[in-house]
Specification:
The chain is of the alpha/beta class. The protein is 34% helix and 21% strand. The termini are far apart.
């Protein structure tokens, strides 16, 4: 396995979602979660899925991550079905709640995917050390998850998702349970990971400012059933920093995205978007 560094050149990886619909249940219990969703994500892009609660953002990410199957339509990752992409370790997943093992140290949590592949002990150590340095947790390598804050636990989850060096990272509202100070710090760290590794990101959020700060493009989903309402390029500097959040361009982009949520809203219903 190649080292995770600025010299890393990931495999070409893009996502193609083609007329995808997802229906749960049957008869009177039938619910359409997604309806005829189509979009593409190019290699090295950071794309956020944004929309009101219940619009199918997480369902869509789970389709890409081979955790659900579409009722109709197709999903491809670098031209392959999600199952084959998963077996070839083309993506890593980070969920809203860190799924860490409390009886394993931080280092051993990060090394778990490598151990399952039979990676040599010395190589596991090298990779985990590099990843823990990347996410700023070198000092906590021998701590246990229950000894860490929520933000630190999520950093461990990100490091573990990167352990097999996948070209694509899928993230399902990973910062939503964190306080604003921790959230903003991790957003900056995530952008640094993207800059240093060149990976592709598909990021689910319900926060407009978060989507604007992180993304190259934002895919806005309409309320239930989820459909692509609009796709927006984020025309902000690629070198993003905390001060960007105070600029007129940043606020203008937030307003542009927010307005699209209200174009067709009923006066009696306000989408749950921050």
């Amino acid at each position: 396995m190649s080292s995770i560094s600025s010299a890393t050149v990931p495999e070409a990886c893009h996502i193609d979602v083609d007329h995808v619909s997802v229906v749960f249940g049957t008869g009177t219990q039938q619910v359409t979660a997604l309806s005829d969703v189509t979009f593409q994500i190019q290699s090295n892009e950071f794309v956020s899925l944004l929309g009101p609660s219940g619009c199918g953002k997480s369902t869509l990410l789970r389709l890409v991550g081979d955790l659900l199957q579409p009722t109709s339509g197709n999903v491809r990752i670098a031209g392959q079905e999600p199952e084959r992409a998963r077996l070839q370790r083309q993506f890593g997943i980070v969920f809203q709640t860190p799924a860490l093992f409390d009886w394993r140290t931080v280092r051993h949590n990060v090394e778990l995917p490598l151990e399952l592949l039979g990676t040599r002990r010395k190589e596991c150590r090298r990779i985990s050390s590099e990843l823990l340095e990347m996410v700023g947790l070198t000092r906590f390598a021998d701590h246990y998850p229950w000894q860490l804050s929520g933000g630190m636990q999520q950093r461990v989850s990100i490091a573990r998702a990167l352990a097999l060096d996948p070209p694509l990272l899928l993230m399902d509202e990973p910062f939503s349970a964190l306080d604003e100070f921790t959230k903003e710090k991790l957003q900056l760290e995530l952008l640094e990971i993207k800059r240093s590794t060149g990976k592709t990101f598909l990021f689910v959020t319900h926060s407009i400012p978060e989507a604007v700060f992180l993304s190259d493009r934002i895919i806005v989903l309409s309320a239930h059933p989820g459909q692509v309402h609009s796709i927006h390029s984020v025309n902000l500097p690629s070198d993003r920093h905390s001060e960007l959040r105070e600029t007129e361009a940043f606020y203008h982009m937030i307003t542009t995205i927010r307005n699209c949520f209200y174009e067709e809203r009923d006066e009696s219903h306000v989408p749950e978007v921050l």
